[in-house]
From TrEMBL:
SUPFAM superfamilies: GatB/YqeY motif (SSF89095), Glutamine synthetase/guanido kinase (SSF55931). This is Aspartyl/glutamyl-tRNA(Asn/Gln) amidotransferase subunit B. PANTHER family: GLUTAMYL-TRNA GLN AMIDOTRANSFERASE SUBUNIT B MITOCHONDRIAL AND PROKARYOTIC PET112-RELATED. Keywords: ATP-binding, Ligase, Nucleotide-binding, Protein biosynthesis, Transferase. The keyword Transferase applies. It holds the Pfam family GatB_N. Residues 336-493 form the Asn/Gln amidotransferase domain. It comes from the Bacteria. It comes from Rhodothermus profundi. Allows the formation of correctly charged Asn-tRNA(Asn) or Gln-tRNA(Gln) through the transamidation of misacylated Asp-tRNA(Asn) or Glu-tRNA(Gln) in organisms which lack either or both of asparaginyl-tRNA or glutaminyl-tRNA synthetases. The reaction takes place in the presence of glutamine and ATP through an activated phospho-Asp-tRNA(Asn) or phospho-Glu-tRNA(Gln). Its EC number is 6.3.5.-. It catalyses: L-glutamyl-tRNA(Gln) + L-glutamine + ATP + H2O = L-glutaminyl-tRNA(Gln) + L-glutamate + ADP + phosphate + H(+); L-aspartyl-tRNA(Asn) + L-glutamine + ATP + H2O = L-asparaginyl-tRNA(Asn) + L-glutamate + ADP + phosphate + 2 H(+).
């Protein structure tokens, strides 16, 4: 983007809630079921049917409001949003309009530091409102060459719409904002946040203006943003397009545009004149939602520790580096697993240094556990090693009973072998020998067999110590502790040096 222009971006994020039944009817919300199997007369809009509000939808929405520092309305109402489209059988969508349940909140995103060694920049993005609504059905255009097919399973699935203030100034900030929203809904357990399944969708409003101007430019709305990458690329393209129009003396037209991921461009969908007049009015079939102080306090007491609070605690109480704390708290499942492993290790080693243990577990989770999750494309629920078993492996490493290479080999075996880490180590001859009396004869034999190299070492070529260590490690049956081998060799080589000096 040219430096003399700035973008002004606001996002409307739609998030499907993880309720077992729909917002106003009892059908299942299970994703992937056969088309038109999760429907009933209410979601299909049959005459004479009446909606019944799913109370869990209200509680999940309040959770999101509390997590994003919103005010919670004591009284809010549902409205009918009217438009005609084949996948909306009622002819209207139940939503909220003038009185959303959550309003006036914010979240913080963390921008990359501008230079080496600098701290990340934290930026606050305002939340104008969060409201409840129901989803529409799905039109399938690629199943039949001559017809568009309709799947009404999604009709009535509960959504929340999160409307940001126009505080976002770049495509990168927009993607970070979306990632933060997904992190929050997953931590709260109210949505899986899977963009590929449509659980998290985004529309973007974007305009450009010259830097320093207070007046907003003409905005366009971009739809069909179903991945973080598409959010960034669509906004980058649209910003360039609008700047080019203004530079040529033209005017940006207020319109809705569709992101074409194949052509990597936005294209017109409808103009301002063609925009829907939704004719909102209060839904006469639904009573107002009243949030009492007791209800709000109960929901607040059930809130999990949020990522930023947890990250700060990991740094301050456990002594973890900021990078480790950020990685470990990115996903709630990973953070829970980390803490469960650390607690199990504390029970195994009650007298150990808490911060040393915290870093040791962090190293295992960040390198080995996350590697397996990424390689297998699984989440923590499908990870095969329980926290207690990993804690036993970490203990073996902290006690120097296995080497770092041996620990990695044991970890890989534990993915399919349910035996204890110690049993696996014994079976694979990976337990380090720390018995000096057993090692001393081997150390002395190696030195006796290489007198020329011993003399070269004594003459100053100390790099030969690695040769001696390797000889001992290969000759000894088992896995001797390398630190102990090094110490024993150094003691005997220094003794030889001292003896040589005495004879001079």
């Amino acid at each position: 983007m040219r430096h003399d222009y700035e973008a002004v971006i606001g996002l409307e994020v739609h998030c499907q809630l993880l309720t077992a039944s729909k917002a106003f009817s009892p059908e299942s919300t299970q994703f992937g079921d056969p088309p038109n199997t999760n429907v009933d007369p209410i979601s299909l809009g049959h005459p004479g049917t009446l909606p019944v509000l799913n109370q869990q939808v209200v509680e999940y929405t309040i959770r999101m409001g509390l997590a994003t520092h919103c005010k919670i309305a004591e009284r809010s109402i549902f409205a009918r949003k009217h438009y005609f489209y084949p996948d909306l059988p009622k002819g209207y969508q139940i939503s909220q309009y003038e009185t959303p349940i959550c309003y006036d909140g914010w979240i913080e995103i963390e921008l990359e530091p501008e230079g080496d060694g600098q701290e990340p920049v934290r930026k606050r993005i305002g939340i104008i409102r969060i409201h409840m609504e129901e989803d529409a059905g799905k039109s399938l255009h690629d199943q039949d060459p001559y017809h568009t097919l309709l799947d009404f399973n999604r009709c009535g699935v509960p959504l929340i719409e999160i409307v940001s203030a126009p505080d976002i100034r770049s495509p990168r900030e927009a993607a970070l904002y979306m990632q933060k929203i997904r992190q929050i809904v997953r931590y709260l357990g109210i949505s899986d946040g899977n963009m590929e399944e449509g659980s998290l969708r985004c529309d973007a409003n974007v305009s450009v203006r010259r830097r320093g101007e207070a007046r907003l430019g003409t905005k366009t709305e971009i739809k069909n943003l179903n991945s973080f990458r598409n959010v960034e690329r669509a906004l980058e393209y649209e910003i360039r397009r609008q700047i080019a129009i203004l530079e040529q003396g033209g005017e940006v037209v207020q319109e809705t545009r569709l992101w074409d991921a194949v052509r990597q461009e936005t294209r017109p969908m409808r103009s301002k004149e063609e925009a829907h007049d939704y004719r909102y009015f209060p839904d006469p079939d639904l009573v107002p939602v009243v949030v009492t102080a007791d209800m709000l306090e109960r929901i607040r007491s059930q809130m999990p520790e949020m990522p930023e609070v947890r990250r700060r605690r990991f740094i301050e109480e456990l002594g973890l580096p900021a990078y480790d704390a950020g990685v470990l708290t990115e996903e709630r499942g990973v953070a829970d697993y980390y803490e469960a492993t650390l607690q199990a290790l504390a029970r195994l080693m009650p007298d150990g240094d808490r911060k040393v243990q915290a870093k040791a577990v962090s190293n295992f989770v960040m390198t080995e556990v996350l590697r397996v999750l990424n390689e297998r494309s699984i989440d923590m629920q499908a990870f095969p090693i329980e926290p207690e078993r990993l804690a036993k492996l970490v203990r073996l490493r902290l006690e120097d009973r296995v080497s770092s290479t041996g620990a990695q080999e044991i970890f890989n075996a534990m993915l399919t072998d349910q035996r204890s880490p110690e049993a696996i180590a014994e079976a694979h001859n990976l337990l380090q020998v720390s018995d000096e009396n057993a090692l001393i004869p081997v150390v002395e034999a190696v030195l006796a067999e290489h007198p020329d190299k011993v003399q070269t070492y004594l003459n100053g070529k100390t790099g030969l110590l690695g040769f001696f260590i390797g000889q001992v490690m290969r000759r000894f049956e088992g896995a001797p502790d390398p630190k102990l081998v090094r110490r024993l060799l150094e003691e005997r080589l220094e003794a030889a040096r001292a003896a040589g000096q005495e004879t001079k």
